[in-house]
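Section 5: illustrative case.
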């Protein structure tokens, strides 16, 4: 006779668990997630939070390994919540970073995750939207670009794919997709970037390399091409889930596409990079 995977007592013929045990376990999972969410929204004592979730886990047949997974998922949901309502506030950023410590999930898996990098990205965008320079700026060391003294490096993207739209025919039909006029202080929410990747079929891949964004330019360096584009010469930006498309104001310029893997951040960054006063 099999033993219940939750309580360890005999579960009955061909059964893996008692129905009541599974229900108790699943309720515990929900309760823990609820606790994490409530802490994110309302704050509280970090130590108490961890004690609480541990005791729920203990009473719900949730083992340490599983608890960790639930806490990471709960924290990730809180990051999503923070970005759902717009710009990441300073308070949200601080609390989400604290939660990683309080919940004992400050592991490389979490600290190097996309969700954690969103906190850094969110802080950069918040500063730019306020017209201020971000606090943590990347180093210029080792980059192949000749930056101007009057510009500040804001972000460096690695492994960026660079594409151009080469068929003049498709361009003659006008600018497809949604392009937007430049305006100060514009922010697009994460939700707007779900789906909708750059369709590469009509594009030509030109190069792959590093892309740097400063308060004045986009810089790109690959194995074949190295160039910079003045941000104030860009007349249209196209937001995609995985990158951006831009159109310069020169008549001969073809649309250019930079696939960074994170269209939301790239788009908001280049749209607001010139805000700094
Ligand atoms: Zn059981």
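Designed sequence:
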């Amino acid at each position: 006779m099999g033993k219940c995977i939750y309580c360890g007592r005999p579960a009955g013929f061909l059964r893996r668990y008692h129905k009541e045990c599974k229900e108790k376990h699943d309720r515990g999972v929900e309760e823990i997630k609820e606790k994490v969410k409530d802490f994110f929204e309302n704050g509280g004592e970090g130590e108490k939070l961890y004690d609480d979730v541990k005791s729920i886990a203990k009473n719900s047949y949730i083992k340490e390994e599983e608890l960790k997974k639930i806490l990471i998922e709960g924290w990730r949901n809180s990051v999503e919540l923070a970005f759902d309502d717009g710009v990441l506030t300073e308070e949200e950023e601080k609390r989400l970073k604290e939660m990683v410590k309080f919940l004992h999930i400050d592991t490389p898996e979490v600290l190097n995750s996309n969700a954690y990098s969103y906190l850094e990205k969110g802080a950069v965008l918040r500063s730019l939207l306020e017209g201020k320079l971000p606090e943590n700026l990347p180093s210029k060391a080792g980059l192949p670009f000749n930056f101007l003294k009057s510009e500040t490096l804001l972000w460096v993207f690695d492994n960026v794919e660079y594409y151009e739209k080469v068929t003049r025919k498709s361009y003659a039909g006008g600018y497809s997709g949604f392009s937007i006029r430049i305006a100060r202080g514009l922010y697009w929410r994460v939700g707007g970037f779900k789906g909708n990747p750059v369709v590469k079929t009509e594009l030509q891949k030109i190069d792959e390399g590093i892309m740097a964004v400063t308060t004045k330019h986009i810089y790109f360096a690959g194995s074949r091409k190295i160039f910079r584009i003045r941000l104030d010469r860009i007349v249209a930006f196209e937001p995609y889930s995985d990158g951006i498309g831009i159109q310069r104001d020169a008549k001969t310029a073809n649309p250019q596409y930079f696939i960074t893997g994170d269209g939301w951040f790239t788009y908001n960054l280049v749209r607001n990079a010139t805000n700094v006063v």
